[in-house]
Design a protein that fits this description.
The complex is a heterodimer.
Chain A: H1 10-38, H2 46-64, H3 67-89, H4 96-115, E1 128-130, H5 138-143, E2 145-147, H6 148-166, H7 168-178, H8 180-185, H9 190-214, H10 228-238, H11 243-265, H12 272-276, H13 278-290
Antiparallel strand pairs in A: 1-2
Chain B: E1 14-23, E2 26-36, E3 41-45, H1 52-59, E4 67-72, E5 75-77, H2 82-87, E6 90-93, H3 105-112, H4 122-135, H5 151-164, E7 169-173, H6 181-196, E8 201-205, H7 209-215, E9 218-223, E10 226-232, H8 238-246, E11 264-274, E12 281-290, E13 294-298, H9 305-312, E14 320-325, E15 328-329, H10 334-340, E16 342-345, H11 349-352, H12 360-364, H13 379-392, H14 409-420, E17 427-431, H15 439-454, E18 458-462, H16 466-472, E19 475-480, E20 483-489, H17 495-502
Parallel strand pairs in B: 3-8, 3-9, 6-7, 7-8, 13-18, 13-19, 16-17, 17-18
Antiparallel strand pairs in B: 1-2, 1-4, 4-5, 9-10, 11-12, 11-14, 14-15, 19-20
Helix pairs in contact in B: 14-15
Classes of the chains: A mainly alpha, B alpha/beta.
């Protein structure tokens, strides 16, 4: 069987390949937001962290020649944003959503300011793992060129689920997410736990940004993110705050994002912009389907106040 | 009398000597000496603000006493923090549960341990927990999230947790306030048995004389921060204990008038609605409240009572059935409520019936401020209308312009009642109207509800306090698992049968 004979089978294959490529930033931001929200705080600033992470990763990878140093720098920068969010929200009477939006705008602004010089140069890219080696169909091989960060993210989702179940740290995050009072009764400082969880969440979002600039689309410009950081928040609700569900939900969103290009590849160009809007429509549809006026959200950390 | 330091199984005794706690000019606790013998259950009685919680906080190291000593196991000790208290084997079970609702019992127990491992080997821990449960007189399910346990199971788990953590002196703060009588008797029976075996010593804060009689060895009564009396539980009559608590003979519950009720004011016909979790539903096939009667709905919290109130108030969509008020279908709009004289007193009025940041005068005016289609509001008119109401209902506030959130619970409740009971009241629906109030305030609120009934209003009273229902209601209903499980005239109501129905037994 050769490439030409693949015919319409190329569409699901292209969607799968696209889903893996597009879903990676969703996955990292969603895992980061999942961790933060499980501790009882919402960080809407992750869109800004994502973009700043993308810029930092690209700049550091270009200057040092190592994409992995870029990823590390993005994580570090993301943790910094998380620290600022966590510390400010620790003050009395501060609203985490408002601070999140402020930090989102700050992150974007700073990224555009420092990133001006890096729009032209070409930085080294992250490697991909050829998981399609067993097939001799070039399309299958191409589709299964899985980027390294996606694999890291998939493992991380499982590790995070295990952490919430079977480690002291994971249980403490869940306790804090249920409310500050139960946490204090255990002698845990909820502020510290939430700040650390927000920092870790920020670091993961930074890594998600690194994937944008160092793998796909693989360059730095001001339009690099199109709201993935914000959609990831919706995704966490849809995933019911479960890291493993976050993985599947990220794949679904990635697949929706890849729908347009996949159809284009087989020559369907009509409604291109409509397919481009698929992830946004999906976000809206899923949020409506997942909520009900008469029912509380199952699995929502009590401290978020969704079910009050 | 000399006191043994501890029982053979290690349950210590506790003594306070001249314990005093001052907050600035205010003295919350003055020269209180109390002696809890090892292996006994000791009741601590007192009104709200009598100093019970201050005393307990000093013992648990939450607050530092201004003067006085604490002795545990016969030795004077310095308790600077809850950690110190725990190290001495002192543990507290709070009135509001401190278990983490989204964690299951096993997770709750393990994470509460000071030496919880950083990576938890669940196989090993489950085995150890099962072995621990086997040594206890009662068990709790380990795998269910605590939020889904019944209140009685949670209370048992709270006690198990203290024992699991090695605490041998337990302070229980109103441990049965959320339990049915049967559940309470069971839990207190276990506690008493553990104490009798010498495994624990217990200091129990309570309001219920029945529990003192049945389960306690000794009693101490506090009033206004001072030791007001005490003795062996069997030697004190209820009247004597009540008098020590409030400093005067207790008020009698309002008497029933014995009039026959009038026409139906509220009928609920086949109403079905989903509960908050969306998993369970309520199904009320028929419920009628007539003018001039109080219908009381008893039940353990979480059996659909709040969903019923919300469905009546239009806050929860109905899947089927209809609500009829004064013969007309009722959609719970503001217009219908005012046309038929329907009034509400939801539970936790500060959260559910007030705008906390707005003034007392504004909150009191919510029913009447726009009467006659008025567009411009006059603050002075609102104040003039509020002043006599605030006075008549005995609402104590610094000023009627103060935000209502600055008032105490009893005063918020009085202010809400002032609003709801003024004007043309033909149907009053109230939920847990005396929750968290002390003797005096609760008696006053109940008298006002009874007075509304005597004036001809139909009253639906939903309460978790069975005594309140038996005191006030003309007809008693029990709600269990979303359905009306029992109905009887108050005179014919059988306490034991009600308890069984509340627990879901038929």
């Amino acid at each position: 069987m050769t490439g030409e004979e693949l015919g319409l089978w190329g569409v699901p294959l292209a969607i799968l390949a696209g889903a893996i490529r597009v879903s990676t930033p969703f996955l990292f931001v969603a895992l980061g937001e999942c961790l933060t929200e499980r501790s009882g705080r919402i960080n809407l600033g992750l869109e800004g962290t994502l973009i700043f992470g993308a810029m930092t990763a690209y700049a550091v990878a270009y200057e040092t020649g190592s994409p992995w140093l870029g990823v590390g720098a993005a994580a570090f920068a993301g943790a910094g944003f998380g620290l600022v969010h966590g510390a400010i929200c620790g003050l009395r009477g501060v609203n985490d959503i408002a601070i999140g939006i402020a930090l989102m705008l700050l992150g974007m602004g700073l990224a555009f300011f420092f990133g001006k010089a890096y729009v032209q140069p070409v930085a080294p890219q992250l490697p991909a793992v050829p998981l399609g080696f067993w097939s001799d169909i070039p399309q299958v091989r191409a589709a299964l060129e899985v980027n390294a960060l996606f694999i890291v993210g998939a493992i991380l989702a499982v590790v995070m689920a295990w952490m919430f179940r079977a480690t002291r740290a994971g249980l403490i995050v869940r306790v804090v997410g249920d409310g500050a009072e139960p946490a204090r009764a255990l002698g845990v400082d909820p502020l510290r736990v939430r700040t650390l969880a927000t920092m870790a969440g920020g670091a993961l979002s930074g890594v998600g940004g690194a994937h944008l600039s160092l793998y796909y689309p693989g360059s730095w410009n001001e339009g690099i993110s199109s709201g993935q950081g914000l959609m990831a928040v919706a995704l966490v609700i849809f995933a019911r705050w479960s890291p493993v569900n976050c993985f599947w939900a990220a794949l679904l969103f990635g697949g929706a994002g890849a729908l347009g290009p996949a159809l284009q590849s087989v020559g369907v160009t009509e409604g291109r912009h409509l397919f481009g809007a698929a992830p946004y429509l999906l976000t809206l549809g899923l949020l409506i389907a997942a909520s009900s006026p008469a029912r509380s959200l199952a699995g929502a950390p009590a401290a978020l106040g969704f079910n009050r | 009398m000399t006191l043994a330091a501890a029982t053979q199984l290690g349950a210590p005794g506790l003594e306070t000597v001249g314990l005093t706690m001052r907050f600035g000019a205010f003295t919350a606790l003055e020269d209180v000496s109390l002696r809890v013998a090892p292996g006994t259950v000791h009741a601590l009685l007192g009104e709200n603000g009598a100093g019970k919680s201050t005393l307990v906080k000093c013992v648990m190291g939450v607050q530092r006493p201004s003067a006085g000593q604490i002795m545990v196991g016969g030795r004077e000790v310095e308790i600077g923090s809850p950690r110190d208290a725990h190290a001495l084997g002192l543990g507290m079970v709070y009135q509001h549960f401190t278990l983490v609702p989204s964690l299951n019992a096993a997770e709750n127990l393990v994470i509460a341990r000071a030496d919880a491992p950083s990576v938890i080997d669940w196989g090993k821990e489950r085995e150890a927990l099962e072995a621990f449960m086997d040594r206890m007189p009662f068990r709790a399910p380990l795998g269910t999230p605590v939020g889904r346990l019944a209140a009685g199971e949670r209370q048992r788990l709270e006690i198990l947790k203290q024992l699991y953590l090695g605490r041998r002196f337990l302070i229980l703060d109103e441990p049965t306030s959320v339990l049915t009588q049967a559940e309470a008797d069971e839990a207190l029976g276990y506690i008493r048995a553990l104490a009798a075996e010498g495994r624990i010593t217990v200091l129990m804060i309570t309001h219920k004389f029945r529990e003192v009689d049945a389960f306690c060895d000794e009693v101490t009564v506090l009033r206004r921060g001072r030791h007001a009396g005490g003795g062996r539980a069997g030697d004190l009559s209820h009247e004597a204990m009540a008098e020590m608590m409030i400093g005067a003979p207790p008020a009698r519950p309002p008497a029933r008038t014995g009039r026959t009720p009038g026409a139906a004011a509220l009928s609920v016909e086949g109403v079905r609605a989903r509960d908050r979790s969306g998993l369970k539903s309520i199904d009320i096939s028929a419920l009628e409240v007539r003018a001039g009667e109080i219908v009381g709905i008893a039940g353990i919290s979480g059996n659909g009572q709040m969903e019923l109130v919300e469905a009546l108030a239009g806050q929860r969509p109905k899947e089927a059935g209809r609500v009829v008020v004064m013969g007309a279908p009722f959609g719970a709009t503001r217009g219908e409520a005012s046309a038929h004289g329907v009034r509400w007193l939801p539970e936790e009025p500060l959260r559910n019936a007030c705008a906390p940041g707005m003034s007392v005068a504004e909150n009191v005016a919510f029913r009447a401020f726009d009467e006659g289609g008025r567009f411009w509001l006059s603050p002075s008119r609102l104040r003039r209308a509020a002043e006599p109401l605030v006075k008549a209902f005995n609402v104590k506030c610094a000023s009627i312009d103060a935000p209502i959130s600055t008032l105490s619970g009893g005063n918020v409740q009085r202010a809400a009642l002032a609003r709801e009971l003024t004007g043309d009241v033909r149907l009053l629906i109230c939920a847990n109207p005396c929750f968290g109030l002390d003797f005096g305030a609760a008696g006053e609120i109940r008298a006002r509800i009874a007075a509304a009934r005597d004036a001809g209003a139909a009253v639906l009273l939903i309460s978790e306090d069975l005594d309140e229902i038996l005191d006030l209601a003309d007809r008693v209903l029990v709600m269990s698992e979303g359905r009306i499980a029992y109905e009887a005239a108050a005179a014919a109501a059988d306490r034991a049968e009600i308890g069984r129905r509340m627990a879901g037994k038929h």
